[in-house]
Amino acid sequence: MLAVLGYPVATSIVLSFQHVKPGSGQFLGAWVGLNNYLSIFSDPVFVTALSNTLYYATVEVVAVVGFGLAMAMLLNHPFGRFAFFRVILLIPWAISPVANAVMWKWIYNSNYGILNYLLHQLGIINQYVVWLGNQQLALNALLVADIWKSLPFIALLLLAGLQNVPPILYRAARLDGASAWQTFRFVTLPQMRTAILICVVLQTMWALKVFDLIYVLTRGSPADATVTLNYLAYRETFEFGVFGYGAALADVLFLMMFVLALIYLRVFHPMSGAQQAGS
Amino acid sequence: MAEVELIKVTKRYGSVVACSELDFHINDGEFVTLLGPSGCGKTTALNLIAGLDEVTSGQILMDGAVVNELTPFERDVAMVFQNYALYPHMTVAENIGFTLKLRKRPKDEVRRRVADVAEMLELGQLLERRPRELSGGQQQRVALGRAVIREPRVFLFDEPFSNLDAALRVRMRMEIKELHQQLKITSLFVTHDQEEALSISDRIAIMRNGWIEQVGTPQEVYLRPVSRYVARFIGSPPVDILTGTFEREAGQIWYRVGAARFEIPESIVPTGDGALDLGVRPEHVLLGAVGQAVTVAVIQPVGPVTYVTVDWMGGRLTSRVPGIVDVKVGETIHVSLAPEGILYFDRESDQRIATATG
Amino acid sequence: MSRSVVVVGLVIFTAWTLGPFLWAVISSLLPQVALTTTPPDLSPTNLTLDNFKAILADPDLVKGLYNSTIVAASTAVLALMLGSTAAYALSRLHVPGSNRILLVVLATQMFPGIVIIIPLFIVISRSGLIDTYIALIVVYLSFILPIVIWVLKGFFDAIPLELERAAAIDGASPFQTFRLVVLPISLPPLFATGVFAFIESWNEFFFAVILTRINTETAPIAIQQFAGQYTSRYGQMVAAAVLASIPVIVLAVVFRKYILKGFVEGAVKG
Chain A partners of C7 at a C-beta cutoff of 8 Å? Predict the structure, then answer.
């Protein structure tokens, strides 16, 4: 397993320092040093991709963790204890990202899609919207589809965290005269700090990795409005064949995720630094 | 049937010494208990004898042959665990017969032997049940059955009754005793409960911090403990230890403890010097009209006897009085010590110092 | 929370979670005509299986389903076999650093596929393994095994040692102990991780699209191509998505107890 992951990472880093052209059947080309990385910074598409990625990740994390917490609280309530609610959560989790994309493709269809129909009937829009073709809206359309699919797992994680809060604390809060909101703010949230942080980190990593959705629905259009770092790396590598540059982009993305993983470790294993020092 | 012998058996975990040079012999058919508080090394010793753990140095012999290298199965030992350790996914019958199944015995032989064991332990009705459907006592009997069916050379018991409630514990002790009388298999029993050890053992080995402090029959360790540690561990309520000094006055020897002093007959004055503590069991503390004046502090009636604790400036003693007593807390009463029950312990070394009489 | 808030919340929750998929299912059962009128013609008399019949006649889609079954099933089985033995070894043999497993798991979650795909592609194509089942299965195992091992090790750690001691005294070899005592009581986490491995393999797209060609195309690829080719055959397009989702949904629902317990708790407790 180390071989499957370690060797490729190393090669990828090496590649990023090179300028490679395909077609020659070779994969090691001329060494260009840090040129690839430098051209990243002067590439306007990169800026777009970066801002798209940051926007996408931020919105998705806030929405998924926020709504996930709300869902978890609903499911924790006596009314929400039925197995039915937990079972339907499994559906978004189980279907493949591709199937999810196709499903939303149909929902977002500009002529016959159900979303346009409902919004029009409710008087919210006058004309049918081309969701996936609209520069302002396309990325958000993808976000909704992704949020729909990601909510269940996070909600379930948060539910587990919620159920780990010792009930006796709620009793103590009630005796102290706390209102529902105060209880939530001073008892529930602090107790769930770890669970919430885990969800934030996990969801951020997944948001950064989004690919299937873009590939099936927009391919990055319109006008690169739905290009993320990950997709850009893919496009440069496999559609434009500029391997070195693609590898450099991929490594930048990897670095971002690595930093995130370190944060996760710090949060979750605050002792691990000391342990490693001692062992 | 087997003799078990430990020769300088030591077990170390890193720098921690769990068992230190244990030297010990169990006779064929004997029921021996390893007794001691948690952490004294008794369970480690048991695991070494079972073969579940390797000795760091020393030898374990069974019937004269060194068994250090043999697996538990090869040593032909059977073990009953504190938490029963029944296989949760198997029925009672399957649990008991598992060892035979591993040895690939024919099915009808397995069925017959399981049935025999079940009958002996009154488990006949429960053969098809799963462990989680049984009570604690029933589970323990299944664990016993699993051990008995092995017809081993040695039975090993690791605090098997600690998880049972008091009444059940007393019953199981009797059952074990009867089982032992019936099967006469060499048995090694580990417990921290001194009453349990006293009631079922042929001999007791008291352990302390990894070594064996004393080995003897229940009577020996009760009446002639080798150290203050053993004296305090055996017997309930525990021995009272008084820290005082000897005095000689008017041709009489006294032991002074704070504001009180107790008469010591010349014949049982200990030999040698060195500061000595005095120990005495409740049944040898005599209350009445004769002796040192003290105040009644606590009265505890426990059915056939009453424990009366008296105190004075500098010390206290507990006395066991048959029946109900007619004193009240705060009253003054007189106490003396029965000469045959006085024990001396060297204050430094903890060892019991013998008197002329023993 | 007041009761009416909760009720409203639950209604919204149900509509949101179930809605999109329900619409997909309904759409897949309606003919093209019904779907392209405004408003969409939802009368029950229109319900038909024509869409499904049509897509099942498409050899590529069927092949995709078939390939996915093989790959996902193999991955799940191998993940369980390799994962359980590895987890057991790690749990019992006190390998140093075995509690760093969490770190390894995290590491595998961290890689966007793009980072490792090129060198991987080179190695695989040089070994002539492009468009083979083996390539996919090995690659999938490299992400899935760490999680399987992590979950199973956690479970094995919690099994009381005395149970295995009793088995040793009864005469069982370590392997017999594993097979006859440890595994039978580990069925819940085994099912949970097996289903998880299956679902993850079934749904995977990125590596499949790059490492397969004509022979081993998996279901997600087939669906994507279908949706790309026949962009106006709405009913069929959605039917393909629904059809490919049925196996995984069924698995998830059947084994929901194990999944919900095993995974989610394991993740929070770390």
Answer: 79
